[in-house]
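Re: that backbone. Tokens:
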């Protein structure tokens, strides 16, 4: 039995990552009947972060532990439906109809917190060897490469964190391959990676992933010299950023920016009345702490269309 024990809700939150959990807590505590849907098990991309060191109050905590705490906290205030994907949302007469893989629900407000998914390289071998050495998540698959050679492609925080993690769990050799001469990641991550003897290869573009049954070697070229080279690896981790999961937003007529992120104002309102957005789906800093803050603001902003007093 859920917290609210009914099928018609005042607020539906799509996506149970940090933004969705935080929105649930603020909405539930404001007396808003809230349901949360997540197509998988919740936690969003933060779930697979091996170590989060910049969420205030926690000097160091794994993404899984932090998401577990948030889930337990949020489930005191909202009905959370895991493995229930929202297929379609329509709006008529200020009421939203939410069609999921299980049922049809209604709500008077919606907060979109669908986050992002991993960007693909789109090179030969990537799709064919996915699950056979090509991975998008070191926390999930790194264990299989203990004592082996791996490469991570990307120059942002995520790529550096993945490389550090792979070294920590005992990969024999970890290469970080980046297409430019400068990393995008914070200096702290770069220093840590260099300190842990991650081999950073700059100005290199991976063109092809080779292997029969599993990944065997990469073909690369140097953007400065034009020289081609091969690198033998057992595992290849793609960490080149994310793309917003915006289909539901598009279908609802919500305005997106040129990169596909939802445009929301300071109250997290979108251009569609009753529709709010929070977390990575709005672009911006894409941090757990900012996702939580946006979730809180979005939840309280819904009071406007729910005819409730703003509680703060
Ligand atoms: P990101 O910061 O967007 O970095 C993506 C990296 O992939 C960039 O270095 C980019 O190269 C490279 N790249 C993109 N397309 C490529 C391609 N086709 N081929 C080769 N390389 C390619 O992505 P992210 O590291 O996943 O991080 C996403 C967001 O989450 C960021 O805002 C980040 O700060 C945040 N984040 C924060 C933390 C933290 O603070 N602890 C941890 C993880 C993520 P260029 O540099 O040349 O563009």
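Recovered sequence:
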């Amino acid at each position: 039995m859920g917290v609210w024990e009914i099928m018609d809700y005042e607020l539906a939150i799509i996506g149970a990552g940090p933004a969705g959990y935080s929105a649930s807590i603020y909405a539930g505590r404001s007396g808003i009947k809230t349901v949360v849907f997540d197509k998988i098990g919740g936690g969003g991309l933060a779930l697979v972060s091996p170590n989060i060191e910049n969420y205030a109050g926690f000097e160091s905590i794994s993404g899984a532990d932090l998401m577990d705490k948030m889930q337990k906290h949020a489930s005191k205030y909202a009905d959370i439906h895991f493995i229930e994907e929202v297929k379609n949302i329509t709006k008529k007469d200020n009421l939203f109809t939410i069609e999921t893989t299980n049922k049809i629900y209604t709500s008077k407000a919606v907060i979109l917190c669908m986050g992002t998914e991993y960007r693909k390289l789109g090179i030969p071998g990537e799709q064919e060897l996915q699950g056979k050495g090509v991975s998008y998540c070191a926390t999930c698959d790194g264990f299989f490469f203990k004592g082996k050679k791996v490469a991570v492609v990307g120059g942002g925080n995520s790529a550096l964190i993945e490389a550090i993690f792979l070294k920590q769990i005992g990969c024999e050799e970890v290469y970080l391959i980046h297409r430019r001469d400068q990393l995008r990641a914070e200096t702290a991550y770069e220093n840590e990676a260099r300190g842990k003897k991650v081999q950073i290869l700059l100005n290199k573009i991976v063109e092809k992933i080779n292997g029969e049954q599993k990944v065997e070697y990469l073909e690369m070229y140097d953007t400065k010299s034009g020289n081609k080279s091969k690198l033998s690896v057992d595992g290849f981790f793609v960490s080149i950023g994310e793309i917003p999961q915006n289909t539901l937003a598009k279908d609802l007529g919500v305005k997106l920016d040129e990169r596909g992120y939802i445009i929301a104002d300071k109250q997290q309102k979108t251009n569609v009345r009753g529709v709010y957005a929070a977390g990575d789906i709005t672009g911006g800093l894409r941090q757990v702490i900012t996702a939580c803050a946006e979730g809180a603001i979005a939840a309280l902003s819904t009071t406007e269309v729910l005819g409730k007093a703003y509680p703060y």
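Residues 6-118+242-306 form a domain with the FAD/NAD(P)-binding domain fold (CATH 3.50.50.60). The chain is about 25% helix and 25% strand.
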